[in-house]
Structure formats: structure tokens, C-alpha cells
Amino acid sequence: MSINITMPALSPTMEEGKLAKWHVKEGDSVSSGDVIAEIETDKATMEVEAVDEGKIGKIVVPEGTDNVKVNAVIAVLLTEGESAADVTAAPAAAPKAAASEAPAKTPSPGAGAPTSPPKGEVGQEAAAATPLPGGRGPSVARGEGALAATNGARVFASPLARRLAKEAGIDVGAINGSGPHGRVVRSDVEAVKSGRSQLKAAPAAVPAGGASLPLGMGKQQVMALYEDGSYEIVPNDGMRKVVASRLTEAKQTIPHFYLSLDCRIDALMEAREKINAAAPLKDGKPVYKLSVNDFVMKAWALALQKVPTANATWAVDSILYHKRSDVAVAVAVPGGLFTPVVKSADTKTLRQISDEVKDLAGRARNKKLAPHEYQGGSSSVSNLGMYGITQFSAVINPPHGTILAVGVGEERVYAEKGQVKVGQFMTVTCACDHRAVDGALGAELLAAFKALIETPVMMLA
Asked: What residues contact residue 115 under an 8 Å CB cut-off, 6+ apart?
């Protein structure tokens, strides 16, 4: 009997991925352990191995296909005695919810005919709207509430219409609704998609100094602001979608506050120069070269140990206080960002941290990280000093409780005991989740970091 090969889950949170490449073709024989495909998630590209042996009878999902659901059938493996003629079409598994949610087909209205909602959908919408106390108008049950329209008014849409509009990249607030009380229904979305109906006119340009543009503008509304041909459309890949989702979640749910101070790093730069100069040579090159960021990672990990109540993450009804300093480091990659985690950074030497960060960053840029290498951690370090940035505030990476933003090390003039001197300074900014880390606690953490980074010999104690 033929065996279905399904889309694997590469992490506990993975719901879908991209079938990046097939290493086999129909008719090829495979054995258990053979690499048959590459699966690309938002963070990594992983190889898929065959579990059983047999012959590839049918490839259901072609390479390059995006948004393939976990457990969907991607290929069919023939066992001994079977031929390709025995394989029937094996459609990808569809979510059960989608089948139950989809209403029965209704005939499309003719040209110029009014677009009325399907009978089942009208009932669904009528049941969703319930009057609020005091005659304040309808509300919609279970997340089916009014959405903010682009002109500041409220717009109502059925759950199905909202889902279809989202899949089509259409702002539901720009669709003319034909349902009860102007509610947007499925047929309205389909009319826009087919060109039988036009979107509402985009709002007039806001004069300088006036109100800002509304939040949540849809793709069509954004495009309407620019002349055709004056831009190039590049669809967002999985990584960019996840980055956007997580940062939106962070700013909407985490009450950030920021603390900044200047660190004098003359002693650090001197120690770094001496350590690098003492590095042994291999093939004429030093076997290691420490960066300023390696010292920052070590100092931040030790500071989290010195102020353990700041080594915390918010868990809704609890706070998790972590025993280890698992510190993530922000790595910029084309089209997005990775935050691989250096586990137990407080117990590792500067050289170990340097080697591990280089390895993680290299594999991050090639999308070769395993999920356990970029998940977890309690804090992060984001360093833009190499770009000449003096100071910035970073967004906390959920569920972390803090993130340290590091600026460039530069010479500055300062006063000491009535004398004008010149020294090397670096500005750092700590963003804290106020639910888990209060202001005084965040200040204590940053002070502990400052003491370590300004006296690097303390990191060796």
C-alpha cells in the first residue's frame, strides 16, 4: 500500500512552511535516511529525510510552493509491487475549520444586478449583532466586532468576508457593504476581486501638520497613494511576516520603558587589544579576534546574574525568574532578523562567546539554524555600533523581559575634577518590560553592566 509523505513540523509552533526544493523526482528509489527535500520556515531551511523505503510515485506539492500546511501530503511513496498507475490524486490536507466555515455556493449575480448576501450569511450576521446597553448601537460577538474604517467611522463585516478580504490583500474597510446596515459580506469581497465593484475612494491627502494617516491601511489603499509604475511590489516572505507580527505584538502588548547611560570603554579597548595581540597564529592568522560585542555579551550575561530579579520574563499570571543567562544576539540577514541564543553566556569565556556568536551568525545568514538555537532566552543584545549609530532604543523580543541596545564607541570630551579630558565612550539603552522589570530594577541592572564593561577584569573573576 502506498505511503503518504507529509509536511513535517520542524518546531512546536510551526503551522506552515515552504517546500523549497526536491532532491528526488518521480520514479526515484529512496531508502530510509535519504534526504528527499528541503523545507523552509520563517527562520531556517531544514532537510527532510525519508522514513520508509520505496519509489517516489507522485510529487503532490511542487518545489517553491509556499504556505504548505503541516501534515499536508507533499508526495506519495510506492511500496514493493506498486506502480505509478496505482497512485490516485492525493490533495493536501485542508483545515477542517475551513470546510465547515465555507457556505454553500450561490449563483453569481448578473452584470449590474445588486449583490445580495447568501441566505446563510445574512443569518450569521444578524445573529452576530447585539444591541449594547443604553442604545449605543450594535456590537458583534466573539471577535466579530466593528473594525475601524479609514475615515474614522466603524465598519462591520462578517467573519468570512474579513478572512476572504485578508487573503486577497484588500482592506475590508474600503469595500462597499451590501448586507444589513451596510455590513460587508462575502459577495461584496468577491465583487471587488472580480472587478464588478470598486473600492471606496481613498481619503484625501492630509495637509502638513494635520492628522496622521489612519492605522491599518490595506494594500489597495496604500497603492492608491502612488502613481502606477512608480514602485515595485515585492511580496513579503515568511521571515518578514513573522518579524512584522512579532514586533507588532511587542509594541501592542509590552509596556516598554527605556533607560540610557554612557559607559567609558578605554579599559575595555585596551584589554581587547592586548588579548587579540596575544592570540596564537595558525596559517599566519590569529586563531581568534575578540570584538567589543563579545565583551558586551559577557558583561550583560553577568549583570543578569548579579541582578537575578531582572533576569525575568512575563508569563501572564506569573513571572519566570531564570537561573541561567541565556542571551540572544540580534543578527541582521537579508530580508529580516534572527536572534540566536547563546546559552549560559555567564559561564562562558570571551573566546567561547566569540566563537559561538560567529558560528550562530554565519548559519543564521544561511538559514541553517535549528529551532532550539533561536528560541528561548530571557534577554537580547542589539548592537548597531558598527553602523556608526550613537544611540537607539530597541524593541523587546517576546517573551524576553529586557533588551540592550548598544551604540558606537567613540572619542568624547568630558570633564573630570575640573579638567577637560578625552576618552572613549559608548551609549547603551536598556528597554524593559514594565510588567516584569520595574524602573529601579532596570536601573540596577544597567548599573551592574556599566561596572563590568568599564572594568573588564571583573569579568574574569
From this structure: 109, 178, 187, 188, 191, 196, 197
The 3-class SS string of 128-191 reads HEEECCCCCCEEECCCCCCEECCCCCEECECHHHHHHHHHHCCCHHHCCCCCHHHCECHHHHHH
223-229: average pLDDT: 87
Q: Which amino acid is at 404?
A: L
Q: How many whole angstroms from its chain centre is CA 345?
A: 24
- Residues shown for the chain: 461
Q: From residue 233, how far is each of 169, 213, 220, 229 by CA, in Å?
A: 13, 21, 12, 10
C-alpha cell at 161: 468576508
Q: Is 372 a catalytic residue?
A: no
The C-alpha atoms of residue 273 and residue 431 are separated, in whole angstroms, by 30
pLDDT at 218: 80
Which one is predicted more confidently, 192 or 272? 272
Distance, CA of 170 to CA of 443 (rounded, Å): 45
| Dist. CA 41–CA 25, nearest whole Å | 22
Q: How far apart are CA 139 and CA 147, in angstroms?
A: 11
**Cβ proximity of 311 and 378 under 8 Å:** yes
CATH number of the domain enclosing 201? 4.10.320.10
Regarding pTM above 0.70, the answer is: no
Burial class of residue 34, CB neighbours in 10 A (0-12, 13-18, 19+): middle
Same domain, 223 and 264: no
Report CA dihedral (63, 66, 70, 72) to the nearest 10 degrees.
Answer: -60
Q: What is the DSSP string of 262-317?
A: EEE-HHHHHHHHHHHHTPPEETTEES----HHHHHHHHHHHHHHHSGGGSEEE-SS
Residue 27 has, within 13 A of its CA and on its CB side, a CA count of 0
| Residue 332 sits in the same domain as residue 424 | yes
Give the DSSP letter of residue 199: P
Task: Determine the 3-state secondary structure of 89 from DSSP.
Answer: coil
Do 424 and 367 have their domain in common? yes
Grid cell in block for residue 437: 522589570
Cell numbers for 138, please give them: 450594535
Binned at pLDDT 50, 70 and 90, residue 57 comes out as confident
Shared domain check, 407 and 344: yes
Report the C-alpha gap between 386 and 84 in whole angstroms. Answer: 57
Task: Give the span between the Cα atoms of 192 and 405, in whole angstroms.
Answer: 45
Q: Looking at this protein, which amino acid is placed at residue 39?
A: I
- Extract the C-alpha cell encoding 135: 442604545
**CA separation (Å) from 209 to 101, 112, 200, 215, 225?**
45, 42, 25, 17, 18
Q: Are residues 255 and 395 in the same domain?
A: yes
State residue 196 phi and psi, 5-degree precision: -80, -15
